[in-house]
Amino acid sequence: MNIVLGVGGGIAAYKACHVLRALREAGHAVRVVPTASALAFVGTATWEALSGQPVATDVFTRVDEVEHVMIGQRADLVLIAPATADLLARLRAGRADDLLTATVLATRAPVALAPAMHTEMWANAATADNVAVLRARGLHVMEPVSGRLTGADSGPGRLPEPEDIVAFALAAAAAPAGAPEARGASGAAGFGSGAADEERPAAAPAGLPDLRGQRYLISAGGTREPLDPVRFLGNRSSGKQGAQLARAAAQAGAAVDLVAANIDVAVLADLPPGVRVRAVETTAQLQTACAELAPGADAVIMAAAVADYRPAHTAEHKMKKDGDAGLTLELAQNPDVLRGLVAQRAAEGWGAALVGFAAETGSPGRPALELAEEKLLRKGCDLLVFNDVSAGRAFGSEDNEVAILAVRDGRAHVAARAHGSKAQVSHAVIGAVAALPRR
Question: 0.85 cut: is pTM over it?
Fold first, then answer.
């Protein structure tokens, strides 16, 4: 795609460099159009070096090419990050007094905005009114997150992380015309207009279903089974995909419980407010937490990598080497947590959708996808998200590629595929779960 990356004049402008790099690495051509104030934070040389394209801020540069119109006409997507309070006000007024506002006014492509400003500015009635009007016109406005702002202040208004901005923008570009917050060819409103729009609760970001009023239970990370007080049997799961699923569900408006098995603190610290985290270590602890929380959920997504086996005996003290002798371990099989939830749902009659994850490497003569299809039928869940982890793929990576499997006429089949950042994959999974018929 040909993407215009607009940059407003805020301290968060440095994050747009990471947004630009992610878009370029995904194969998109990106033209950066900063405001004059934005260049006080990140200079022209940086934008031109990262994008490989010229940078201008005013409508008089390259007048012979009529760039203030042509840039918008040629764009497949316009993304502005950060969108400051001043820029939102100018866009709402339909101003065209610099290259960026003129580009937005001239384009018929989807426009995505990632606001960033101080909490008081975001909460101001003028900003709220500007955002409501822009959304009513069909522009996609992302919700800022809560966190550290300029100086010692903290609160709502922080620019979301670059990978979330990219996922939001690409979802906006893919949104069908006429969908909520989707910008049609004429720029017509997706929500309608008038004061009624201003009274609506915040809707889900473009590309995500509206999950307000629902509760999602998500497990993530990798369980660990202790051998002794200092050693354990574990796996290579980082928990990043499960954390991104929790983020996406929360962004869509759901109340989220995240059962976190040995996830790095930095990953958990980046979760949006309102995601309730219950830390567990072993498979037994994860099973107990999920069995307790699942009955009240609308959907249960089991993204955690659960150990199939545990030591039959755990040493009370650290095991010592015994000369040159090796060590033989006796292992006991862990319970199948997902199958247990399927059985619990049938016995107790609650209606949550149940979604499993399968990380497969394949085996001699058995493709990984075939093994995943068999697992879906064996587990009895509603969907199975399969990824091929041969040669260490997916674990710890920022990207993922999955096939979402479902059952039709008693046979497993690939219902959808998704690839890209783990944030993008999470959006696809949450969409597939939300599309399941209610039980």
Answer: no
